[in-house]
Amino acid sequence: MNTVKSVLMPKRVWPLWWLALSLAVAIPILIRFLGDAPEDNFSDKDRGIREENGTPNAEAYFQFTPPIELSRLANEWEPQQALILSISFSEAIKDLEIARNFVNVLDVAHSYLDIYVFCDQKEHKQYAHFLSLINPHPRVEAILEKTHFVDSRSLLRWTRDFGPIFGFGASDQLVTIDLVYRDMMKTLEVEALKIDEPLGSMRDFFNLNGDAMPSEVAAMLQSEYDIPVDIVRPSVSMDGGDFVSDGRGNIFISRHTLVRNGGNRSELENTFRRYFGAKRLHILEALPGRTIPHLDMIVKFLDHETVLLPDFKVSKEKAINPYHAELNRKARSVIEKNERYLRRHFPNHRILKMPMPPILFKSRDEIVSEAKQAFMKVYALDKGMVAIDEINRLTDAQLAELERQVLTAIRRETPSADFSTLTAFDAVLRQYGQLPLEAFIDHYSEPATRYRSYINSVFLHAKDGRHAFLVPRFTSSNSGESALLEKWEADVESVYRTAWPKAKIHWINCDSMVSDLGFLHCASITVPLLATH
Q1: What number of other Cβ atoms are within 10 A of residue 205's Cβ?
Q2: Per-residue model confidence (pLDDT) at position 325
Q3: FRET pair for 491, CA 20 to 30 Å: which of 22, 104, 219, 402?
Q4: How many secondary structure helices (H) and strands (E) does the chain include?
């Protein structure tokens, strides 16, 4: 038997280079998964942002502070002042679909609100490139008149997760609530488990910058609108996408956030009372799988007494393996469990339901193609046909040529070898000691569970009363699914207009965001209307 290193055998220890092959998929997921919160303890020194000699305290961005009494939290449906976004110019230029999506949001939102885009202008070449993409737009002057690029720091798109939550104090002043976004347990995990984490420094870098961003939002609002803005930092570790409020003291988080904060519900509820003015903390379930466990994918309040939930659709095609079937079952179970809880605890609320497309799983052909490419790369590396530092930089044309070279080399050993049919490729796998193809498919799981959600939308409410929803649009090359998506869009528009009959519906193509596990709501924050001087 030939001895090519296995990528398909389940019990082998995979070589280090296999991790390198996975980095492109892992980066957008890993940098969004976070850890636990520290203790809610204050010392006199911790309360200040300056040292005794008056110089700025280096920890000013991250200190916990005492609470400020709130009169109320801001609601997403009330009149608004501005839309806050963040962007990495390098990421946007590297993937022009991200840039196009961003420009589409600017094009719609500028007619409703001021827009503030937090970015790192040290990336001046990428900044100039991004502006050049906007320049040909027919409404470029109007867009740029309302869009303000705020020189900040290196940030990713997920503004909702690391940005502030807004409330109003007893004197009606704006209060920004700054949650802990960083992975507070990572250092301990690395030390305890002796983990060599290639993405650790990158993730920590973006998390630190995200944690500092609310301070810059508060400073910007004070400067732009000449108003006092307070900032408080509770010892709560949470992504903003997992925070849902009905505007009347009921706050909803997922079980994941409860666990991140130590699992003591009464203690966490007390913190929410002190800092958020909460009357009750409700724990719901987030979607299962390798995804971002945020409630804003499946729960949305459209006013104080109207809550939007998904009607989860399962593909008519049979699940390709037990893992896919289990995810479908668990997703439906989570959504139904949340609905039962809300109907039981809020019997007088109006519950609206809109379609949620099936999980986007890879097809059998895509899995076979992935298995073929993985085997080809392993063989090529093992035989010295390509260097490890080059393998992930090959173009499609170069990969096709490498496949031809690999097949030629294999035919020197087995003249009848072929990749063109499933049976022939399976024979090659077996010859080289790999897992049979059907077993590989049966064991297969995607590195990311790709949900699509129309609920992850943004409500824009201009000061003159005009209002609109920015809603994710999803497309499909499959004619049958494309027809279903078109039908579901009509249903989605009807549901949103049930709550807000005069709302405009603006569709933003979000196909490029599906694998990033977040959509329009995840990538934005709205600022409530301000009493400016």
Answers
A1: 13
A2: 96
A3: 104
A4: 17, 17
